[in-house]
Target: Phytanoyl-CoA dioxygenase, peroxisomal
Amino acid sequence: MSRAAERLRLLINHLDRPPADIRAETTGALSFNSSYPQRLRYSWDTDLLTPDQRLSYEENGFILIKNLVPEEDIDRFRSAFERICRQEVKVPGLMVMRDVAIAKSEFVQDQRAVSKLQDFQEDAELFRYCNLPQVLQYVECFTGPNIMAMHTMLINKPPDAGKKTSRHPMHQDLHYFPFRPADKIVCAWTAMEKVDRQNGCLVVLPGTHTGTLKEHDYPEWEGGVNKMYHGVRGYDPQHPRVHLEMEKGDTVFFHPLLIHGSGMNQTQGFRKAISCHYASADCFYIDVKGTTQENIEQEVKDIANRKYALGNDITFQDTWAFRGRLVQGERTSL
Model:
């Protein structure tokens, strides 16, 4: 038995011991004392993650894997993105989004006009990201073996136009999802180039994944806020933050309750990343009426109605069932 496997066996055999005093590091490794941790709630034992990595995700709600996606793949995703921006291809169901400040300027038919592609599941080249074996083997650690790709994005954070609109407010991704349980949902977010504080890297609040879903709405920001960029209400602004600076191909996996956002892009270039939210196919849909998610439900239904003229015939759950794609195992529920 390997040393790592032996350590994990000891941890699991002592689940009822007192929690460990865990000191988390930002990239997934951590150190801990000789006492034993509480029950490992947030990951599955697939023999991929080390005990240290599992404990880090347990404590922090995210784990960063270096150099996971090859440069050749990322370059292909970039080319597919540029073809869409030049309108050389039409992708069914794709939502092409523009920064609110850029939208008020002269339209340019290239990537400078596009801040995000959302729902690219019908584009074979971009959706290849969601099927990459090296990504799915990590996803399985958090969702289990039956995996649905539920939400796809390619983010093209533009240079800030002086209005600070390139910021993304702090939020929890679960706000957008009418399916549960939250612990069987994970995001894979891959840097398509060097990402740092200058061009607006992800900012996370470690440990906030252990809390509950908070109320979200549009922040009252000067300069405006991009459509559907809701922000979390009532979080502690003094909570310690980690800026996830990443190299091309690095991938962070994080829990849907983890509070995170990103700062302004203060460079002259565009900051690109590609991501997919995955869920266990064993997850189930919930009714969000009467909850803090009712505002996003109405907004999504309004957009779907304008796009497809379906009126009240479409539900919030329908919009997600339409987008979801099985990528591994069996489609058991979602």
User: Anything to note?
Assistant: The chain is about 25% helix and 20% strand. The chain has two domains: 12-60, 71-328.
